[in-house]
Amino acid sequence: MPTQWNTVPIKFEGGWRTDLGRLEQGLQYPGSATRLINFEPSIRGGYSRISGFTKFDNTNVAPSKADPVIGVVVVSETTALARKGDTYYTSFGSGWTQKAIVGRTGATRINFDSYNFNGNEKFVIVDGQEDPLFYTVGSGTASFDTNAPSDVTGASLVKVFKNHIFFAKDNILSFTAPYEETNYDTGDGAGVINIGATITGLIVFRDQLIIFTTSSIKRLDGNTSTDFVLQPITDNTGCLSPYTIQEVGGDILYLGPDGVRWLSATAKNNDFGLDRASANIQDEILKIINPNNNYASIVIRSKNQYRLFNYVSGIDKTLSEGFIATKYSEQDVSNISWSQIIGMKVYSAHSRQFLDKEIILFTSSDGFVYRMETGNTFDGLPIKFVFETPYMPINDPRIRKTFYKHSLYLKSQGILDLTCRLKFDYDPSGSIQPPPFTLLGSSDVSVYGSAVYGGAYYSSTIADTFINQTVGSGFVVSLSYEGNIVTPPFIINHTVLEFSINERR
């Protein structure tokens, strides 16, 4: 009987998953990943190696201070405001300048928001210890509101809503008179609201102020103190940290006590299971959930992407962990894919959009401020990347297949060095597996073409299709692609495997 030849295309999609059995994942989601490190699911399809980060300013914020940089504000495309110890500093990218010294110490994070009441953009900043700080962007001046009432002094959260400045301290939400940043007179429209539980987050969303607590979520409707109305969203769950709350793709993501959640699904379902955005990697997210942990997050608007970081002081930066979530559809909250970041130690972060340019800054434990999404390294270190598919039975896990050809389709921005591996039958201990092979390419990307694995260059350009003749046999097969060199970003789109059918087990 002649050999039956088969071809199976595998589209890389679905992201990192840890919620399925190994046979189920390989059978139903062959293009998903059991490991997806320093790749990001792309809204255009496939998995893209993430970009690197570089120092925003090549100097330490304050080398004489041993304290960590507890917060950073993107002021403009070229300017940042940072807090280290008890002092605020500004930088235009060529050295940090002292701006203001607070009266007390002990702050571990800052929280801020921007507004424009009188033609000048300002930031209001709180730290859980001090009087509010007001920073004027145009002049660079900074001043403290030393006359703030006790419900405002020591506030840990701040948000501007309907031309009032709202301050959160414990369970109290205080707000100023409209268009007046330091007027707390109730006769002029200021006020105080007792939320009934410790406030853990504030965000303005769809003309409402969303108020997160340790055990509930509420919203504030209305325009002034005369018609503000507090409404419940859910009493079944809350938010762990204000620094995990971000607007992504027309919805709100936040870290709750049982995982990363969508606000819209929480409000609609009021159920613990249906609204978890982190369902695909739930076990991994649960490992980092602790009310005492230091979290940070940013949103990359151009990618519909949310990044969540768990800062652990005693872990080396090369081992520090983060998570990437990409939302593909504004209509479907379940249409989200995950991956893992290793090598970014993020203490605090802030991102801001300026027309077509997005500036993303973060602080770490070494006294520097870094800019994300820049360069091809992690501040000079190669970006280690890994993508590993599940073990794929390819229709029937009881039929042995012999694989002869492996075609990989990708797009690269330049020089590429990629180690590829085929593994069979769950790679049991002591089993002989095919050796890895290396894909090499150089120079510019060609639109069409093909090349052969094994160290040979394809002319002067890297092709978008690479074909390798390989021999291996097994009932299930897994593919892995990895590297640890300085290389520009690239996207792995899909692969095609050619094989013959052997005997049934």
**Do you know the CATH architecture of the domain at 5-50 and 386-504?**
Sandwich
The major pleated sheet works out as: 7 strands, mixed
What is the typical, i.e. mean, pLDDT? Answer: 89
Q: Specify the oligomeric state.
A: single chain
Task: Just give the CATH class of the domain at 5-50 and 386-504.
Answer: Mainly Beta
Tell me about this structure.
- By secondary structure, the protein is mainly beta.
- The protein has a domain at 5-50 and 386-504: Jelly Rolls, CATH 2.60.120.
- It has three helices and 39 strands.
- Strands 1, 3, 4, 33, 36, 37 and 39 form a seven-stranded mixed beta sheet that branches. It has a five-stranded antiparallel beta sheet with strand order 2-32-38-34-35, with no helix packed on it.
- A hairpin with a 4-residue loop joins strand 8 and strand 9.
